[in-house]
Amino acid sequence: MANQKISRPLLLFAATLSLFLLPSSAQLRQNFYANICPNVESIVRDAVTQKFRQTFTTAPATLRLFFHDCAVNVSFLSPSLSLSPPQGCDASVIIASTPGNTAEKDNPDNLSLAGDGFDTVIKAKAAVDAVPQCRNKVSCADILAMAARDVVALAGGPSYAVELGRLDGLSSTAASVDGKLPLPSFSLDQLTASFAAMGLSQTDVIALSGAHTIGFSHCNRFAGRIYDFRGRAGSVDPTLNSSYAAQLQAECPRNVDPSIAIQMDPVTPHTFDNQYYRNLQARQGLFTSDQALQEDARSRPLVDAWARNPALFNRAFVTSMTRLGRVGVKTRPAQGNIRRDCSVLN
């Protein structure tokens, strides 16, 4: 999959057909809970802030959890195409596995999700349900969407109004994740096709990749770039800054535990800012899929623009997060419900 070349006709097919497959987001709206649970946003924000103060990992973990939840959608990279309703932003990633079912969170592609993200949503849900008027009235999917916005703001990024009104999904299977999440080895074409399957654009690819300005990655996710690149003994990816490559080798020796994690942004790892794009200009993108945004002439103009102008990046990120939050939403009772426990199906 990582070396698959995505053709232009397939990109167009994915972008066009996805428009017909994705549920309408028309029923999502700001202030959805105004008459149901008027203070829900402040309740969630307070719970998220408390968790954030305990550990910064809360920020990247929650933001990544939101993406992984929404990105499990119809995939045009898979050999088969299902016309059944996609998972999308429905908190299905939070469901715990049972003896009879292996849930999304236990798919190998989700095993690196940090527990702090799940804990943030669970604690925010408990805070909401502690208010009698709000108990069992606010979906876990909406709480996750609000929490993702809040951790971005707490880390120094933009705050924004979140569209709400999602219901929680009725199923969660590990198999539904297969082939759906973009890989660190993806080219721009592969990233674009993956996002097109969610109804998102190449601009969304570049903007949402900016979330890598915070967080961490395990060594095994990029070891191929710093050792034996493309099977050549001792070689390093030539698109990687040599000094940065040496730094990565020092932090991730050949025989190191592959689960050891390092910061994705070597300059301002605890601040949500536009440093990610400056890093790409300096050839300090950690993943192949990161550096591809600078190396490819089609995406480079936006990388350069957002590296120069943080306000411009912030606006683009908010727009793309809003679009991401509409993917595969459930708004009708036949599609979903409001879970009493975010980790257990009702």
Question: What are the SSEs and their pairings?
Answer:
Layout: H1 8-21, H2 40-54, H3 58-71, H4 115-129, H5 140-154, H6 188-196, H7 202-208, E1 216-218, H8 223-226, H9 242-251, E2 261-263, H10 275-281, H11 288-295, H12 300-308, H13 310-324
Antiparallel strand pairs: 1-2
Question: Keywords, please?
Answer:
Peroxidase, domain 2; heme binding; 2 domains; mainly alpha; Haem_peroxidase; two-stranded antiparallel ribbon; 346 residues; 13 helices; globular; Peroxidase, domain 1
Brief rundown of the structure:
This protein has helices at 8-21, 40-54, 58-71, 115-129, 140-154, 188-196, 202-208, 223-226, 242-251, 275-281, 288-295, 300-308, 310-324; strands spanning 216-218, 261-263. The chain is mostly helical. Helix 3 (58-71) crosses helix 4 (115-129).
